[in-house]
Amino acid sequence: MISSGISPSRPRRPLLALAAFLCLLQALAAQIPAGTDFTALLKKADALVTFPDTDFSAEYTFVQESPGQGKSTKQAMVFRRDSENTYLIVMVMPVEDKGKGYLKSNDNLWFYDPVSRRFTFTSAKERFQNMNARNSDFTRSNLAGDYKVTSARWEALGKYQCWVLDLLATSPEIPSPKMRIWISDDGLARKTEDYSLSGQRLRTTAFPQYQVVGTRFVPQTVVILDELRGANINGVFVKERTTYTITRPSMQSLPDATFSKAWLEKLSD
């Protein structure tokens, strides 16, 4: 008898790989409850904090807490036009930062320095004014487009009952490759955790309270903990923290010129 050279007790590697892949698909499917449309849930969370038909502006006050270095406060005016995926931010304090600004237009993001009077390209992934916030935190919410849901569960977060969704970015351009989000039963995001692709937690963001602006919602306070940056104080690692409050929110229409380099330069004069 001529031997085939293949032992019947040793499965072929492609079959093993296929079996492992099918098991993974089954495991992922088991983590997502049947009958729940989580894409719709993300779309609702987006819609509640997005202004598709009006402009939005507000005053943002930031308090940066760096362990061992104390606190610092900054203030900025933020102008958004979500229908065109654009925003403009201009710093108003402290004095040394006054006039510095950011202009986002679709996928382009510029930083303006009033001293050199120059615009330079920057990234949505960059830290905003060297704080724990990112430049991407100020644009319109697009969770449903930026992420796909990989797992879900239902749990309590303080006084809220929430869906906890694990999300995977749909593009390498998304600032957070992985995210975990807590969405309460009213559709509002209450907490997020940002992760690297390897699964390392990078920062935690909480939204303790919202304010109503027209038919939409805007956080009153946002608290961001940097999971990597901090200092050992008396043997305990204390994380950097940025807290910002949003006041004087407005849905008043803004001139088209608001979202331009020329207007940012004029504000800085």
Give a structural overview:
The protein is an alpha+beta fold. It has one domain (38-268): Clam (outer membrane lipoprotein receptor (LolB), chain A), CATH 2.50.20. 16% of the residues lie in helices and 47% in strands. The chain has four helices and 13 strands. It has helices at residues 13-31, 38-48, 143-146, 261-268; strands spanning 56-66, 70-81, 86-93, 101-105, 108-113, 118-121, 147-157, 160-169, 178-184, 189-195, 201-213, 216-233, 236-250. A 13-stranded antiparallel sheet has the order 6-5-4-3-2-1-13-12-11-10-9-8-7, with helices on both faces. A hairpin with a 2-residue loop joins β4 and β5. 24% of the residues are buried. Mean pLDDT is 89; it is low at 1-11 and 24-30.
Q: Any chance you could write out the topology, listing elements then pairs?
A:
Elements: H1 13-31, H2 38-48, E1 56-66, E2 70-81, E3 86-93, E4 101-105, E5 108-113, E6 118-121, H3 143-146, E7 147-157, E8 160-169, E9 178-184, E10 189-195, E11 201-213, E12 216-233, E13 236-250, H4 261-268
